[in-house]
Amino acid sequence: MVKDIQELLIPIIKKAIINLGLNIEKKNILLEIPKDSRFGDLYTNVAMQLTKDINKPINEIARFLVEEIKRDLEDTPLKGYIKEVKVEGKGFINFYFSKIYFYEKIKDIFIKEKKALKKNIGLSKKVLIEFVSANPTGPLSVAHARQAVVGDSLANILAFLGFKVKREYYLNDEGRQIEILGKSVELKIKELEGQKITYPSDYYQGDYIYDIAKKLRENKIKIKNLSDYAVRYILRIIKKDLEDFGIRFDYWYSQKALRKSGKIKKALDFLRQRGFIYEKEGAIWFKSTDFGDDKDRVVVKSDGSYTYLAPDLAYHQDKYRRGFSWLINLWGPDHHGYINRLKAGVEALGKDPNSLSIIIIQLATLFKDGKPVEMSTRKGQYVTLREVMDEVGRDASRFFFLMRRTSSHLDFDLDAAKKQSPENPVYYIQYAHARICSILRQPDTDIKLKDIDLTLLTQKEEIELIKQLVRFDSVLSVCLDNLDPYPLTVFLKEVAEFFHRFYDRHRVLGVDVKLTKTRLALIKATQVVLACGLELLGLTCPEKM
User: Fold this and answer.
1) Exposure class string for 162-186: b at 16+ Cβ within 10 A, else e
2) Same domain, yes or no, for 139 and 211?
């Protein structure tokens, strides 16, 4: 089977640019899939980019590149796989693949199954994804749930692409919020004992506070440190909820343990030796403006306590020292302003700031009966991950939390997620998988390679389905480039749509024997792609529905 077409095309395009007399070192050549299949199977707008460097009309540049590309294609393995290259629109270079290419890709998936879909882009590069990392002051909310499924699915995709991925949850298990947690439990115990209590506005008042206090009082448990006890109690809830959501972390990293280890002081000493720490007004400052931040940042306050940045610098230094060369952090939108100072810290520690990727996950709003569900986190009046799972199930929960780009606010319709109909995308995709399994359970559906003649697949719906399946590796590349699993959800919905359309219009069983066997091979390849995509998103692949 020919190597990935995009990998082979890019050096050919680069050579054409050199022949145009330009330096291509700083040119980022992107090959993308057109939204409209009438414009080919891949396109590039590189001619548009080159107009900045050469004083020629864009279409003239594009036509020159096309002639160069066509000539070079004759001497590559791509000959026979690309049937046409032409300029269309305002300088777009469009590539049209031959049917042979698509047939060979489908045959490859049929023979090798999931192995045919894997691409070793990562080359075993060690990646640490830190996500959720919610303070252990209450059960996980829907905002945490969205971060959890994005982080977990992204980790699955990176591992599938050849990266060595580990998942980490950072526990902020000390500080003011943890102290308030313990005091909240203490007041609740007093209230259960009959005292009249007025809770400060910043105290926690959720049902879980009542449960902790009730357990301690009824069992006559005497605890010296209520904060530590409450953290352990809540952490058990968080771990159980995540496990039931299909998410397991490789590491749980404690900020309290980090401080006790002395690593925070060592990190600040390291920065001081490099000239990036100074004292002013009784506080200790990090010279983050040396690295593009808008102002320097305090790391140790005048009272000797650390700011949030100090342990974060030590924590990230420790990540690198553990052997990870790419760090990915998933944060909520309230942390957006924190990005520059942490990137500055990474650079000050002697690391490439581009080795730290920070993804901001926008919030989610739950809708029920067409109306948004109101939430107030401090009083505990918020919908938890557990409540969403209990209402709509794990698979629907995970998929619906992924149905928008991470940069976009998510509206989660609880009623739609519960529907057992094609209106529910999870049901629609899983039903396609189950439908194929049902067909392949029928008698005489065993298929051997010698029984297949893919040139028999000429119907419009067959070609559409084939072309969609072949896009799988390109979609994963987009997920990698954007660090977002969202494109995979769109792709799976489209695969299901193309499959259902094909199957509703064309018989698989009961036609000419050769055609039956070939169509069975096509739906087997479809099953492989659907199953692989569902598994990467952490969803089940039902064989019956």
Assistant:
1) ebbbbbbbbbbbbbeebebbbbbbb
2) yes
404-438 pLDDT, tens digit each: 999 999 999 999 999 999 999 999 999 999 999 99
Nearest one of 406, 514, 395, 413 to 454, comparing CA atoms: 514
Distance CA 106, CA 96 (A): 17
8-state DSSP, 253: E
212 near 230, Cβ under 8 Å? yes
Q: Does one domain contain both 30 and 163?
A: no
Under the banding of pLDDT at 50, 70 and 90, the label for residue 240 is very high
Same domain, 159 and 43: no
- DSSP secondary structure, 414-460, as one string: HHHHH--STTSHHHHHHHHHHHHHHHHTSTT----GGG--GGG--SH
Q: Hey, what are 328's tokens?
A: 């990915």
Q: Where are the alpha helices (DSSP H) in 161-206?
A: 176-192
Query: Measured at the alpha carbon of residue 474, what is the angle toward residues 468 and 478, in degrees to the nearest 5?
Result: 120
- The model carries a pTM of 0.94
pLDDT at position 53 is 85
- Cα–Cα distance for residue pair 169/188, rounded to 1 Å: 29
- AA identity, residue 528: V
Could you list the residue range(s) of the whole structural domain that residue 36 is in? 5-97
